[in-house]
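Problem 12. The chain below contains 287 residues. Write out its predicted structure in token notation.
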Amino acid sequence: MANIRAAFILVLFVIMTVALMPLQFLAVKFHARAAKAIPHFYHRMFCRLMGMRITVIGGKMLGGALVTANHTGWLDIPILSAVMPASFVSKSEVARWPFFGTLARLQRTVFTHRKRADILADRETIKGRLIAGDALVIFPEGTSSDGNRVLPFRSALLSAAELEIGANGASARHAIVQPISIAYTRLHGVPMGRENRPFFAWYGDMELVPHLWESFRTGPIDVVVELHKPLTIDEAGGRKELAVAAEKAVRAGLVRALAGTHLAAQLPHQDVDLMEALTHANSEEAA
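Solution.
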């Protein structure tokens, strides 16, 4: 039965991907709003296909922010993309991956490089995207984990937080950093436990294709996504301090979600629908 479920998901995933890839290719070239909307729709449909139940809690998500999240594996990408129109910041090697590199390019991923000349160009690209109001996701741990913990955030990966941005005559300000926790909490409606959570984590020397198939086979899961209070490098006092503050917020959110206390321990800021928050923020900026 599990193999039938996996095959069903795989077939529908391929059909949906093949149908939407040409549309997204045209949108990237000719229609910026559609280029954000199509991946958002695509990942929402994929999460429904996988049977995911995603609970989003926390405060307002502002446009034009660096999203810093804990990283458990490849499922983090469709989950974050399902709850908000987002692109990702990734190492340049990902662009050369078969199939997944193409998907990353179509989602307007910013690929970063190691050469100094390229690094400066990458920063300008990120700056332009933030000014345009894009949400760019960074995984500051620099790797993925087993889903039971948050690894130390590497401050070097938050260098984009030092960028000063401003548009349409607005005074320059440092980039907003939006910490987000992702927690895999239940399997078939039952608390997942430490021993089952790594089934949905892709880390270490795991091979991707067998892990994908096993994820398709395993069954519906519950995921908690918590938006924490936005940060800036000015408020934190420096890049290292910013990394520590973001890491602390993300770890606290993960601990709450895994303990099942995330709804009882709401943050002081208002719990709102994410897409309503994005629409509200964009309308305020336009005004």
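Discussion. Confidence is low (pLDDT under 50) at residues 267-287. Students who got a different answer should revisit the alignment rule from Section 12.3.
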